[in-house]
Design goal:
- The structure is a single chain.
- The chain contains 9 helices and 2 strands, in the order αβααβαααααα.
- With 318 residues, it is an all-alpha fold.
- The chain has one domain.
- Strands 1-2 form a two-stranded antiparallel ribbon.
- The chain starts with a helix and ends with a helix.
């Protein structure tokens, strides 16, 4: 039974680290392959392989294997044009080093709690499972609440409700861990506590993934609103240009009619009337000629449109 619990403990431990590493690479880089199963089976294989190495009990070999697998994953399964391969490798290895130190802090936290509570766990397997559970809880919260917000390409958006939820989850996990420590120190049924520890870690991982999904949904909603606003502005501008186009056609039609009138006046020798008619046509064509305000053609067109809108509003006012 103890061997099964130990295997289960290390399996969950490796599964959580694998999830965090793949999550990190998903948010930092682009996937090389479109087939999602490639990454699913890579994660499963990585979890099983590292579980076997963990059972050997050689910390140096364990860390070296994690660094090697992270290097392979960042170089083969992912790419990023703006980040060179060596930099991607360095980022993944830095993440694993941070995880290692965070796990060490979790182990020290367990020892400090046991010392403070004057408790002692005689079952070494349960003591190991407890250390792994607390260390992984610390890793999960440190990554999702601190590291992820720094390394994520797009700013993570956290609401007050999400912060409150995370604090409640953390408080619940801490209280539940204290209850487990008290039960194990009194040599109660260790199987129930082992299952409880597994459930705590997996539930926290799932809930924080849910919060991450909420962050991404909020970010996408903001992008959609921005695109909708941009589309509305473009549509309004299109309507303005369509109106201006129709106005231009009307002006050109009037100009053709006035040109015929000028020809008739010119043929009759009426110079003054011809001159007035020419000035009148110039006034009609004025809206079609953009004024040079800045020397920038596009900016001058926009400013001319705004000036024309103001003049139209002023002409309507009494």
């Amino acid at each position: 039974m103890d061997k099964i619990l130990m295997v289960l403990c290390y399996l969950i431990s490796c599964f959580i680290v694998t999830c965090i590493v793949f999550q990190f690479m998903d948010e930092r880089y682009h996937r090389t392959y479109q087939n999602r199963l490639v990454y699913v089976w890579s994660g499963i294989g990585n979890t099983i392989f590292m579980t076997v190495l963990n059972l050997m009990g050689i910390p140096v070999l364990n860390l070296s294997a994690w660094l090697g697998l992270a290097g392979i994953g960042s170089g083969v399964l992912y790419y990023e044009n703006s980040i060179k391969r060596m930099k991607r490798l360095a980022e993944c290895e830095a993440l694993l080093i941070v995880i290692t130190f965070t796990e060490a802090f979790g182990v020290l936290l367990v020892k400090w709690i046991l010392l403070t509570a004057n408790a002692q766990i005689r079952n070494l397997v349960m003591a190991t499972c407890l250390e792994v559970t607390v260390s992984k809880l610390v890793v999960i919260f440190v990554y999702f609440m601190a590291i992820r917000g720094v390394v994520k390409k797009h700013l993570a958006i956290h609401s007050k409700m999400q912060h409150t939820t995370c604090l409640v989850i953390l408080l619940y996990s801490f209280i539940n861990t204290l209850a487990i420590i008290q039960g194990l120190s009194h040599d109660l049924n260790s199987g129930i506590f082992a299952v409880n520890m597994c459930c705590i870690v997996l539930a926290d991982l799932y809930l924080l993934y849910f919060i991450k999904a909420a962050d991404e949904k909020k970010a996408y909603d903001m992008k959609v609103r921005a695109l909708e606003q941009q589309a509305k502005l473009q549509y309004d501008y299109y309507l303005q240009q369509d109106q201006k186009y129709n106005q231009t056609l009307q002006i050109l039609h009037d100009v053709n009619r006035h040109i015929q009138s000028i020809k008739e006046l010119s043929a009759s020798g009426n110079t003054e009337e011809t001159k007035k008619y020419a000035e009148q046509i110039g006034g009609i064509l004025k809206p079609l000629i953009p004024t040079r305000y800045t020397g920038n053609a596009i900016l001058d067109i926009l400013l001319s449109d705004k000036v024309r809108q103001v003049e139209d509003r002023e002409s309507v006012l009494p």
